[in-house]
Amino acid sequence: MVLKHLYATLRLYTNFFQPTMKLKNKERFGSRVKKSYHAPRTPYQRVLACAEIKAADKKKLQRQYQSLNPAALKRQLDKCRKELFRLASKKRPLKLKRHLNQRGLQIKPHVSVGTDLFRVDFYMRQRFSFGVVFYMRQQALRLDATS
User: Fold this and answer.
1) Nearest to 92 by CA among 59, 114, 74, 72
2) What pTM did the predictor assign?
3) Taken in order 11, 12, 13, 15, is the CA torsion positive or negative?
4) Residue 113 vs residue 116, higher pLDDT
5) What are residue 12's DSSP bridge partners?
6) Quick one: pLDDT at residue 125?
7) CA atoms of 110 and 45, how far apart (whole Å)
8) Is residue 73 classed exposed, middle or buried when 0-12, 13-18 and 19+ CB atoms within 10 A define those classes?
9) What are the angstrom distances between the C-alpha of 53 and each of 10, 16, 35, 46?
10) Does the pLDDT of residue 88 top 80, yes or no?
């Protein structure tokens, strides 16, 4: 249930508030490749700019965007992450798996779940803390431009 809530929140946060740079073209100069990119935009902004999307669908997305708060989404992601760690850190008996190799039978423990969660935690902290800062700067620039 925690993962389901985490993925639902992550989908909203990523699609509405995480800008990405899409590759425009690549030019090869001998062994070197020069890449140029479009300006960073969120998937939400790309959908709004697309001409093939119906106006009703765009309105629905705009209403959903207006109801979202990136800081609240970030807090929900942190809450889910902490709950996931709490569940993973419960003591469990060590399961042993038997592997057959050329020398005979050896017993090796399963890979710990904790190490994978630490990788996920590091990734989420790196990526999503930057996204909130970027979004806040973007909103501040919009306010300055309209004033």
Assistant:
1) 114
2) 0.60
3) positive
4) 116
5) none
6) 63
7) 44
8) buried
9) 23, 17, 29, 10
10) no
Nearest of 33, 31, 49 to residue 41 by alpha carbon: 49
Residues 6+ away with beta carbon under 8 Å from 110 = 94, 95, 96, 97
How many other CB atoms are there within 10 angstroms of residue 76's CB atom?
18
Query: In sequence order, what are the residues at sequence separation of 6 or more whose Cβ sits closer than 8 angstroms to the Cβ of residue 105?
Result: 98, 99
Residue 84 contacts residue 9 (beta carbons within 8 Å): no
Quickly list DSSP for 2-71.
HHHHHHHHHHHHHHHH--BPPEEEEEEETTEEEEEEPPPB-HHHHHHH-TTS-HHHHHHHHHHHHH--HH
Distances 5 to 1, 96, 141 between C-alpha atoms, Å: 6, 31, 32
